[in-house]
Amino acid sequence: MLPIPERVRTLAATAGVAKLSVNGAPSPARGGVDERGRPVLLVLPGETLHGLREDAVVAVNLTAMRQLGSVTHPRGLIEVQGWAEAVPEGEARSSAVAVATHCPDESLFKALERYGQPDAPRLLRLDVGQVVYLTGQESGTLDADDYLGAAPDPLAETAERVLAHVNASHRPQLTAGVSRQLGERAGEVWLWELDRFGATVRADDSLVRFPWPSPARSGLCLETALRGLLCAC
């Protein structure tokens, strides 16, 4: 299994901003996550956070989802707690891209073109204090150093592509392989998580982990390891 800080960072990298609170009060949530795992927020004039000092206490709830057929399930819930700070002008464009990935908004153009003007939309990010996470059967808290010091799984992009392909085109083989591994007929089987240490499948409402004999070191190794599960005898 991925180390917890790496797992949380991997989930955060694909998560969307679901909820925002400022000094304990709810506020409109509009944002994404930058390359270091910090939530980035687009804040419009008139909203609470727009006119507050940059040391406002902020909590951002991130939700990573998994689409299985026509149903969307939460993979992980992450609350990043910290303090709001302005995105430096030199990093504004990349931060706007991070927001647009999950929340396209024409106000992002105004935030860039009119950067620093009092009545312009603002791009803010979190100076992370701590991170609370709930994923599967695991929950806990990470301090800022552990969270920011970790990086997403380097095979995450390949893993998501392969996972989507298997769930779309190879579920009968997945079900057969999982049934052989379990020694009994599995129910409704989907590939739930895939990383360099193994695969997690969702069989009915249960999550079952299948670790690889050794960690995958490349996308090709990952596909080869997964093929072993699909073809398990």
CATH superfamily of the largest domain: Electron Transport, Fmn-binding Protein, Chain A
CATH level-two architecture of the largest domain: Roll
How many separate helices? 7
- Rg, rounded, reads 20 Å
The proportion of residues in beta strands is 35-45%
Q: Mind summarizing the main beta sheet?
A: 8 strands, antiparallel
CATH class descriptor of the largest domain: Mainly Beta
Provide mean pLDDT, rounded.
93
Order of helices and strands: HEEEEEEHHEEHHHEEEH
Unreliable spans are: none
Report, as a whole number of angstroms, the end-to-end distance.
23 Å
Shape: elongated
According to CATH, the fold-level topology of the largest domain is: Pnp Oxidase, Chain A
Could you estimate the helical fraction of the residues in percent?
25-40%
The chain-level structural class is: alpha+beta
Number of self-contained structural domains = 2
SSE inventory with pairings:
Layout: H1 4-14, E1 16-22, E2 25-27, E3 31-33, E4 39-43, E5 57-68, E6 71-86, H2 92-102, H3 107-113, E7 122-135, E8 138-143, H4 144-149, H5 156-169, H6 171-182, E9 189-195, E10 198-203, E11 206-211, H7 219-230
Antiparallel strand pairs: 1-2, 1-5, 3-4, 4-7, 5-6, 6-7, 7-8, 9-10, 10-11
Helix pairs in contact: 2-3
InterPro entries: Haem_oxidase_HugZ-like_sf
Protein name: DUF2470 domain-containing protein
Organism: Nonomuraea longispora
